[in-house]
């Protein structure tokens, strides 16, 4: 099995569904409330575990009830949580308002994620024992840089999802093997709205890029080669939440198994297409048997 370390966030998503989102100073009565385990790190960990990876989660939850639920959820998905610390104080939370048009507004409070500013010897050892390290940008940048550097120095392949998009320092990009932005993140990072143009700019900083393009599929580009567009399976999408995280988790598993890039992208696209056909994020992530059967 592919050993994958995920260095990233764990959040409880607190979702309010309402016909219309409130304006400033306004109160509205909503329809429904749901708590859903989330955080890009935890979502990628669940996706990779279900896709057939042996996954260790590095990060932190709080010492509140959400922390227990988040840890249990990861363990239930088969993710190793020995390096998911329990920090004093609240877990990370995302406060999400979804209106009837499907538009959302989100406040993220990092909570315990914010205390992960540096890595200890246990985390460094776990990264060194992995074939791949998955990272996003929902932990303090200092920890992400340290993880990327540790992975590189041990020959561990590094994959970064640059979300939420922000200017990235060279000390991070210099240690990234594969960057996987969505279309918006690629545009923001490169200053180029067109994906081929964005890929060319990003390849100055990292050797390989996959720009995910929603229902259009993804654009793969590597230094010295022509960019290639991989179409997504045509499916009836009901909820695209978590599609990107499902894609990256499955991609990591397939790459870790040594599959050629085209095959790994097909596996990732199949996994993400299954995710969008069901409501929810981590609950709709497919198992390996479903991906292979699709
Ligand atoms: P994110 O969820 O990070 O915004 P995207 O929207 O680009 O990322 O979706 C990630 C991947 O999920 C796409 O590259 C594609 O493979 C798959 N995907 C997303 N939306 C659809 C869809 N409507 N139909 C089929 N596949 C989809
Ligand atoms: Na979904």
Q: What is the CA-atom radius of gyration, in angstroms?
A: 18 Å
The largest beta-sheet arranges its strands as 5-4-1-8-9-10-11-12-13
How far is the first residue's CA from the last residue's CA? 21 Å
Bound molecules: adenosine-5'-diphosphate, sodium ion
CATH evolutionary superfamily: Ribokinase
What is CATH's topology name? UDP-N-acetylmuramoyl-L-alanine:D-glutamate ligase
Shape: globular
* CATH class call: Alpha Beta
Query: Could you tell me the mean pLDDT?
Result: 96
Number of helices: 10
Q: Regions with pLDDT < 50 over 5+ consecutive residues?
A: none
In what range is the share of β-strand residues? 15-25%
Number of strands: 13
What can be said about the biggest beta sheet? 9 strands, mixed
Number of domains: 1
* Class based on secondary structure composition and strand pairing: alpha/beta
Instruction: Please give the CATH architecture.
Output: 3-Layer(aba) Sandwich
In helices, the fraction of residues equals: 25-40%
**Helix and strand sequence:** EEEHEHEEEHEHEHEHHEEEHHH
Binding site for substrate: 11-13, 39-43, 138, 245
Protein name: Ribokinase
Keywords: ATP-binding, Carbohydrate metabolism, Cytoplasm, Kinase, Magnesium, Metal-binding, Nucleotide-binding, Potassium, Transferase
Active site: 245 (proton acceptor)
